[in-house]
């Protein structure tokens, strides 16, 4: 009963981690390509990362 | 000459090391037992820290005689139980005794107030360790409520001082105003206008500024060592998210509702599938807002306190400085998180308001 839920939450967190990693990596590339747009890219990056982070936390609290 | 000086710190270090090893030897006997209790104490402290409480405890310690002493001040307890009942939380004696008010008896059981039968009344628990006693309606000024009121007062003075400084100096801010102006302008120029649009942003500025400064100041208060934290109470973040939800729902224009119930530009079977998903999405958005703030702050506090707790568990010369150093680094990270979460909350609120008031010319 407990273990599948924990494994599922772990999988969700791995997915969220990959997602945030990809966002961060893409933002880095974008900033390297266009340093003058750093501010805009950072804002968009933070919003996207926050949205994914919410899913990860939701999984953790579903287990709790 | 140079060699002589460089020897000094080494000697000092060696001297310190002997002290450390001496101290360890003293604790040597029965080490297993003390380690277990230290672990339990750290765990208990973290659990206690995350909870709201009826009194404002600054710190507590155990005297040499083994008596527990609590330093702090009590806060008022306000109950509605066949009439208003107001009394000081010092009557609970930190959950140890039953409080008597106008012939009724109340007991503080794991941070919640229950009604008991008499002065020696006990809490009756069912099989799942849930208390079955009657619970009166609770409007108490708890630690969290106290801090919210405190932040309200601080913000009121901060911003009224800012407004006055504009009036006094013919539009040139001084003092508090000079400090706050860039932040207010940042919220307007970087958060409100890009997300909501030039036309409608003014209506939402008051809420965005309030929520930004409230969450920020409250998060910063969570980092001072007197142990007040409000945003790791899910009820507080629920209220903040609920306000965002209500504002979004009531400012939604024709286009907003059309995009939820009858998405333009997609085939009819798809429209029928999309409508419930979009409707659910309006609730999930503030729900995520609530969970994000709550979980970030709670996780930060738990990790920070666990690392500081390691100092009490690792009884050697390496563990304690390491845990203190990590705690210091993490505390700085938490300073960033405090501002970042306030920013994210405000940006996402602005984004949702922007969605609600967006005007589409063509489709």
Automatic annotation (TrEMBL), chain A:
Predominant location category: membrane
List residues of the V-ATPase proteolipid subunit C-like domain: 6-60
- Which ranges does the record mark as transmembrane? 6-23, 44-63
The membrane topology noted for this protein in its Swiss-Prot or TrEMBL record is: Multi-pass membrane protein
State the Gene3D superfamilies in the record.
Answer: F1F0 ATP synthase subunit C
Record keywords: Ion transport included? Answer: yes
Keyword ATP-binding set for record? no
Question: Which chain positions carry the site (Reversibly protonated during proton transport)?
Answer: 53
Task: Give the record's keywords alphabetically.
Answer: ATP synthesis, Cell membrane, CF(0), Hydrogen ion transport, Ion transport, Lipid-binding, Membrane, Transmembrane, Transmembrane helix, Transport
Compartments it resides in:
Cell membrane; Membrane
Q: Which CDD domains match?
A: ATP-synt_Fo_c (cd18121)
Protein family membership: Belongs to the ATPase C chain family.
In UniProt terms, what function does this protein have? Key component of the F(0) channel; it plays a direct role in translocation across the membrane. A homomeric c-ring of between 10-14 subunits forms the central stalk rotor element with the F(1) delta and epsilon subunits. F(1)F(0) ATP synthase produces ATP from ADP in the presence of a proton or sodium gradient. F-type ATPases consist of two structural domains, F(1) containing the extramembraneous catalytic core and F(0) containing the membrane proton channel, linked together by a central stalk and a peripheral stalk. During catalysis, ATP synthesis in the catalytic domain of F(1) is coupled via a rotary mechanism of the central stalk subunits to proton translocation.
The name on file for this protein is ATP synthase subunit c
Q: Which organism is it from?
A: Litoribaculum gwangyangense
């Amino acid at each position: 009963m407990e273990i599948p839920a924990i494994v599922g939450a772990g999988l969700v967190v791995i997915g969220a981690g990959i997602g945030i990693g990809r966002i961060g990596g893409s933002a880095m590339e974008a900033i390297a390509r266009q340093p003058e747009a750093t501010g805009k890219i950072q804002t968009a990056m933070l919003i996207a990362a926050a949205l994914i982070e919410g899913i990860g936390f939701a999984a953790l609290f579903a287990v709790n | 000459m140079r060699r002589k000086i460089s020897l000094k710190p080494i000697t000092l270090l060696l001297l310190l090391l002997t002290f450390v090893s001496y101290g360890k030897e003293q604790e040597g006997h029965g080490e297993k037992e003390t380690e277990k209790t230290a672990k339990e104490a750290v765990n208990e402290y973290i659990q206690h820290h995350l909870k709201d409480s009826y009194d404002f405890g600054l710190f507590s310690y155990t005297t040499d005689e083994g008596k527990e002493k609590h330093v702090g001040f009590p806060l008022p307890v306000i109950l509605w139980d066949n009439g208003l009942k107001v009394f000081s939380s010092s009557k609970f004696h930190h959950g140890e005794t039953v409080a008597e008010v106008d012939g009724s008896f109340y007991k503080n059981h794991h941070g919640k107030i229950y009604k008991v039968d008499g002065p020696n009344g006990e809490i009756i628990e069912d099989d799942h360790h849930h208390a079955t006693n009657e619970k009166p309606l609770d409007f108490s000024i708890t630690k969290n409520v106290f801090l919210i009121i405190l932040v309200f007062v601080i913000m009121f003075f901060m911003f009224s001082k800012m407004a006055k400084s504009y009036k006094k100096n013919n539009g040139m801010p001084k003092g508090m105003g000079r400090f706050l102006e860039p932040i207010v302008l940042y919220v307007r120029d970087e958060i409100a206008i890009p997300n909501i649009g030039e036309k409608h942003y003014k209506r939402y500025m008051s809420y965005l500024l309030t929520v930004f400064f409230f969450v920020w100041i409250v998060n910063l208060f969570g980092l001072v060592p007197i142990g007040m934290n409000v945003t790791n109470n899910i009820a507080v973040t629920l209220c903040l998210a609920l306000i965002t939800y209500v504002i979004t729902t009531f400012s939604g224009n024709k286009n907003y509702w059309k995009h939820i119930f009858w998405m333009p530009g997609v085939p009819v079977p798809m429209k029928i599938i999309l409508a419930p998903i979009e409707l659910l999405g309006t609730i999930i958005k503030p729900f995520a807002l609530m969970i994000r703030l709550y979980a970030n702050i709670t996780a930060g506090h738990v990790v920070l306190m666990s690392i500081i707790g390691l100092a009490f568990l690792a009884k050697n010369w390496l563990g304690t400085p390491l845990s203190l150093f990590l705690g210091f680094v993490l505390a700085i990270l938490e300073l960033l998180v405090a501002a970042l979460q306030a920013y994210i909350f405000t940006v996402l609120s602005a984004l949702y308001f922007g969605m609600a008031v967006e005007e589409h010319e063509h489709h």
